[in-house]
Design a protein that fits this description.
The complex is a heterodimer of chains A (135) and B (125). Chain A is α+β, with helices and mostly antiparallel strands and 135 residues long. Chain A has three helices and five strands. Helix content of chain A is 38%, strand content 27%. With 125 residues, chain B is an alpha/beta fold. The chains are: A alpha+beta (135), B alpha/beta (125). Chains A and B meet through helix 1, helix 2 and helix 3 of A and helix 1, helix 3 and helix 4 of B.
Chain lengths: 135, 125
Amino acid sequence: VARVELEIPSRSAYVAVVRLALAALARSRGLDEEVVDDLKIAVSEACANAVLSNEAAGIDAPVTVGWIEDGDRLVVDVGDRGEVYDPNDPAAEYDSQGFSTRSLMSFSLLSSLADSCEMSPRPGGGMTAHLVFRR
Amino acid sequence: MGFLRCLEEGLAVELGIDVRELDSHAVVDVQGEIDVYTAPKLREKLIELVSEGSYNVVVNLERVDFLDSTGLGVLVGALKRVKAHDGTLALVCTQDKILKIFKITGLTKVFPIHDSVDEATTARG
């Protein structure tokens, strides 16, 4: 089991750093370019959500990113210290004009591009996005 | 300049935005990665265009390497603005990896998506 951990300041400029680092890791492990593209988007979504969640809560805590390889599974955990919410009761999905909100589009991308995506409350506050990719 | 400052100000991701007029449309050529860091720059440019009276806008995504939900949110916001003036917002995109993002989020039904800028500026609606 190989494990890599990253911690970034909770600012939008650093999301690209995680995206590039994890794409490089995924490529070095021989993942198909299509899976690498999916992983880049899903990881960016999870990191953007974490940064925005910290920002909304007014908390300047780092965003933590964990990468674990376990056989044919790649697991990426992204943690924030923002508001804790019930993942089964998401925020408003459509705006007053019937357009999808950014958070709904983000959720659609995460659940389509990762083989699985689960949100859970994090010990000590905040949420963790738990993403699983298969080789 | 410290490393972190440097990273935030330039090394992170670049987004190039150029605007030109073509057949009564404002064509916005975007180049680079549209993410949570760069999307505000695109939002500001699109708001500026609409406030200056450009209500028929084409956003050319052919040289965009990366697009996430914050970029999609900016495009939806711009669509709402031009629609308030009975305008149009069309996209140009032939890259599978970018088209996939529009398909997953159902936005292929919301935006006209064309294969070329010429096709987008001559299309009706």
